[in-house]
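An instance noted here:
***
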Amino acid sequence: MTGGGAEQRARPNLAVVGATGAVGTVLLGILSARQDVWGEIRLIASARSAGRRLTVRGRQVEVVALTEEAFEGIDVAMFDVPDQVSAQWAPIAAAKGAVVVDNSGAFRLDEDVPLVVPEVNAAAARIRPRGIIANPNCTTLSMIVAIGALHSELGLSELVVASYQAASGAGQAGIDALREQTVKVAGTSVGEQAGDLRALIGDSGPFAVPLVLNAVPWAGSPAPDGWSSEELKVRNESRKILGLPNLRVSATCVRIPVVTTHSLAVHAVFEREVTQLRAQEILAQAPGVVLYDNPAAGEFPTPNDVVGTDPTWVGRVRRSLDDPKALDLFLCGDNLRKGAALNTAQIGELVAAELLG
């Protein structure tokens, strides 16, 4: 009993579905490092991973198989699994009484599922008719914390984006492919590399062409009129998160040979005029953003600087030479942390606080 005779509520129980995957592994580390708001933490994965033991908050926890019974007594379920698995199992978990935080693309554009970035639209997490909250795509997440802060003061009207996406955005298969390709080109001459990289590499894995020593202007699957699914995600998800259904967005998504951390070059047009200094002030004060912007001193974000960190890092902030209402900037975000696992954990913490009242 607490002081005054009020009964203390039990901390909510958490399930992590896909605990043994690339994002799931990062999520377990994040849960271990953040404030402990959870009761039981149950680890769920495919049947072939059941029985493995993983460490969470200093304790060894045995992984259980994904079944309907695995959600008994669970209050919040974080899903880090492929779209088709989430599409099947997230509604089952919700029907068992859990609030689902889903990191797949299965529900992001569902009108009855909020798409949430806590620094931008935390209140949306409370309105969840299906009992599911969606986590945005990692490319959108790497950008939207900074853009959301600028939008709240300046009123966003247009985005033109070029992304430079890490191999890990294609999952463990992407990481493995880049490492294998790097080994194959090590020690080769410039002439060999320039001659026929495809013949040297062989199988390109999940990428359309070899990624090592290259930049591949394609990410995702084909969409109408020459667009890719990744490019449409940036457009559609930005609109939903910011509550701007008519926002003009154009994106070109490119894979580059880094393991982790997505980068984006952004041209943003606003309703009001903005100076470089005011934009830097807004970004410096924004939650979840690090302003790192002194090019003369070699200070601007790169994937190497940002990997393993939680914020979105922003630099190269400039007012457009031709439009006083437009900004150009460069930003980086670790796609496995804020771009996936951290945002999932933050949403879960919002729900936990709500359940605890």
Q: What stands out?
A: The radius of gyration is 21 Å. The longest strand covers residues 156-165. Confidence is low (pLDDT under 50) at residues 1-6. The CA atoms of residues 301 and 313 lie 6 Å apart.
